[in-house]
Request: fold
Amino acid sequence: MFSNQGPNEITVFNPDAIELLDGFSNETTRDVWYDIVRPRTSAVFTRDRLEHKEGRKFWAQGLSNKAMNEYNPRMASLAKDVSRCIGTYGKEPVDIDQVMSWFSWDVMGEVLFGEDFNLTKSKVTHPGIKHRDRALALAGPLGDAIWIALLGFQLLPPVGIVKDWHNMIQFCEDHMKSRLSRGGNNKTDMATYFIEEYKRTADTKTKRARDLHLAGTAVTAVVAGSDTTRAVLIGIWWFLSQDPEHAKKLQSEIDGVDVTDPNALAALPHLNGVIQEALRLVPPVMTGGNRITGPNGMLIGDVHIPPGVKVTCPKYVLHRMESMWVQPNDFIPERWYSRPELILDKRAFSPFSYGARYCLGKNMAVNAMRLVVATILRDYDVSFAPGYDKDTMWRDMRDQVTCQPGAVFCVFRPRTSAE
Ligand code: HEM
Reply:
């Protein structure tokens, strides 16, 4: 299935496209949208294939299993903070977006900068979150005409959303600069590897180019590291409140397991099923990933797409197609472990993208989600807050670079049987 979006743009609803667009032998380049952080650069926001390949190595080190062993205990401790934070609400409704934003921002601070932003403990929203959200609200709709945004950032007075954009960039840049000058707090963090890249390229790049690259990398890491897991977590609390049987099943799986041990959590089938199913129905990158076909164009089925065409293959749609999934719109975690017959074409599942451009933060994101879901469910039962209209999350959901679900309010009651 195809849909023409413009003279030179096509949207494809076919899992064959995933391999062709991003597989290791793909011939595509990224679309002009990836210029969004210019004049800053980063391995993720570049259209240059070599720059991408070289820069990806430092991200891979910063998110390797060895590095994860350093981050996991710190993420487990932040998950405990969230559970304590939820306890302070008593019988009052918890604004899930707010609390999950605090958690994901705290995780990003610890993992990226080795710094505790303390949001979950202080229950204060960092201004950086507001700037990020408003900046993404601009970057999303302008995806097809990114030059408007880039011109606007240069020429328009820094007010309104333009100001938010500058503030977000400034926050990321300032934090990376201060991390560079202060050193590493005796903690391994992702910045360790980005600073290594900064130093190693001293002979081949000007200082200005290196400064712009470090700043662009910081912006990328803040957005990728904080705004993605938040969306899935909001979805998870919605699904568990909607269908408490899944929460009970999770609790019986979690009880008796050390919820601070990522290896133990990785072995729990229902927990993994819940996360996979939430990633399917609330993919943090709903569309995105626009590519330009290479010199040979692209053959999808019997349709030839000429060279130089922008191709989009939206995950949100692929994840819900009847030809790929049985009961596509239903939340059935079991399809990932005991009911594989409910998955008709597994290739259609690509929340973390694929191949040469596969998400390097997958392990970190999944570990953070397992830790926080398990820790909270060990301590509480969850349900929708009285009077909450459960359609709100879907009705107000926005595709703004990352998925922005509508509001979710839940109440958490301490479990009498909790350890
Ligand atoms: C549930 C959480 C997450 C999801 C669903 C997700 C999804 C994705 C997707 C779809 C892409 C491809 C984007 C594109 O091609 O434009 C991507 C790339 C990437 N993600 Fe994630 N991401 C998540 C969390 C994270 C985290 C926590 C980090 C680490 C800070 C991270 C780091 C990256 C990096 C470095 C890339 C670029 C890979 C490349 O260009 O080679 N992600 N992610």
Summary: The domain at 2-414 is CATH 1.10.630.10 (Cytochrome p450). Residues 207-242 form the longest helix (36 residues). The chain has 16 helices and twelve strands. The chain has one domain: 2-414.
